[in-house]
């Protein structure tokens, strides 16, 4: 697969080449035409510095070091220093091991050859220090940049792994809860069918009504089964046996959070609507996560929770004060709780929004309830 050359790969060498040609023409040094040509060739080689640094960065430096043999000395124009710096930086930044040092050693050997055989002026230790001061900083900078880039990639991979694990854990939790819901529905169908069998001869009309309830329960169970198969990832067969919670359990949940120090203003419909079991348990979990976020990240440990129902949808709105205009919370959380809420809402075909409005973090979820 051929590596793609980016715009920056071309623009930087092109800019240096333009500066080099302009400088050579303005200085009008002996052999400046050859010097300008070699600078352009060196810059052209730098286009491939990111994808094949050992080849192109090293060749660019070697072409640059030919200039004293056919044109001006390297210490007369300034632009060759830029070419040298970019080449050395590339050897450090894009070569994963220390082979870049070997290439740099070759360049230094040829550079000192220029001093020994082409530049006939007297040289001493200060010239060595001058050359090292030119090549050491870009190489060190390149290695540091590479190390930071690798750490950034590792951090991003770790964050993505954590995110995936959080989504999977939430899917497992949803699957376990829906398993309980389906088991309850099937049990209810068995009981209702048995009752209908007893009534079919003595009270056919009542038996018909019971069988209609069985059909409704079966349709709901089929819908929940489809959702369950979509998210089921229970590799360890850890299906829970506790009854699945729902809207009826919200007062107890709120009371527990109040005991933990969260002042909750609760607004529930009265009477509570009859919901499909999957929507009922997911609504409970969404409220639970919203209250957890308010307790952890709210600025004054207060929150307002409103649950409303229509014939077609259940809406949940949770708000709490925040002093963080960027993230919507007083301190930075992982965001994994919101991922779990989003997973539930998406599973049920609902809508979710969250963000900061007028100094308050607002989470709104809408779940369809039509079966």
Automatic annotation (TrEMBL):
InterPro entries: HATPase_C_sf, Sensor_HK_TwoCompSys, Sig_transdc_His_kin_sub3_dim/P
Record keyword Phosphoprotein present: yes
Catalytically driven reaction(s): ATP + protein L-histidine = ADP + protein N-phospho-L-histidine
Alphabetic keyword roster: ATP-binding, Kinase, Membrane, Nucleotide-binding, Phosphoprotein, Transferase, Transmembrane, Transmembrane helix, Two-component regulatory system
Superkingdom of the organism of origin: Bacteria
A molecular function (GO) term: phosphorelay sensor kinase activity
Keyword Transferase tagged: yes
Residue span(s) of domain Signal transduction histidine kinase subgroup 3 dimerisation and phosphoacceptor: 170-236
EC number(s) reported in the record: 2.7.13.3
Residues annotated as transmembrane: 31-47, 54-71, 77-94, 101-118, 124-142
Any one cellular-component term (Gene Ontology): membrane
Pfam families given in the database record: HisKA_3
Entries under PANTHER family matching the protein: NITRATE/NITRITE SENSOR PROTEIN NARX-RELATED, NITRATE_NITRITE SENSOR PROTEIN NARQ
Protein name, UniProt field: histidine kinase
Species: Nocardioides islandensis
């Amino acid at each position: 697969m051929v590596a793609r050359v980016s715009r920056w790969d071309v623009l930087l060498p092109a800019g240096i080449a333009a500066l080099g040609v302009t400088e050579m023409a303005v200085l009008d040094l002996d052999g400046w035409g050859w010097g300008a040509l070699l600078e352009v060739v060196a810059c052209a080689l730098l286009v491939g510095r990111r994808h094949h640094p050992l080849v192109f960065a090293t060749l660019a430096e070697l072409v640059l070091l030919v200039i004293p043999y056919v044109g001006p000395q390297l210490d007369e124009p300034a632009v060759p220093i830029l070419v040298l710096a970019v080449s050395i930086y590339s050897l450090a930044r894009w070569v994963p091991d220390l082979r870049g040092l070997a290439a740099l050693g070759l360049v230094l050997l040829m550079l000192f050859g220029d001093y020994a055989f082409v530049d006939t002026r007297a040289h001493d230790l200060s010239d060595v220090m001058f050359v090292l001061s030119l090549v050491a900083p870009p190489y060190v900078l390149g290695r540091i940049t590479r190390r930071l880039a690798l750490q950034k990639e590792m951090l991003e991979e770790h964050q993505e792994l954590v995110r995936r694990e959080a989504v999977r854990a939430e899917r497992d939790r949803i699957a376990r809860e829906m398993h309980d819901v389906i088991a309850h529905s099937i049990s209810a169908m068995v009981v209702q069918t048995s009752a209908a069998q007893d009534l079919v001869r003595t009270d056919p009309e009542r038996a018909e009504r019971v069988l209609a309830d069985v059909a409704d329960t079966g349709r709901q169970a089929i819908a929940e089964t489809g959702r369950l198969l979509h998210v089921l990832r229970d590799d360890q067969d850890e299906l829970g046996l506790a009854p699945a919670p729902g809207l009826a359990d919200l007062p107890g949940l709120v009371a527990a959070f109040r005991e933990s120090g969260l002042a909750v203003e609760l607004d529930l419909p009265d009477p509570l609507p009859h919901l499909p079991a999957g929507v009922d348990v997911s609504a409970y979990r969404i409220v639970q996560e919203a209250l957890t976020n308010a307790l952890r990240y709210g600025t004054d440990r207060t929150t307002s929770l409103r649950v409303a129902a229509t014939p077609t949808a259940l809406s949940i709105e949770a708000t709490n004060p925040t002093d963080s205009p960027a993230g919507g919370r007083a301190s930075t959380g992982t965001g994994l709780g919101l991922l779990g809420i989003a997973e539930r809402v998406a599973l049920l075909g609902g809508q979710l929004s969250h963000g900061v409005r007028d100094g308050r973090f607002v989470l709104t979820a809408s779940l369809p309830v039509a079966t």
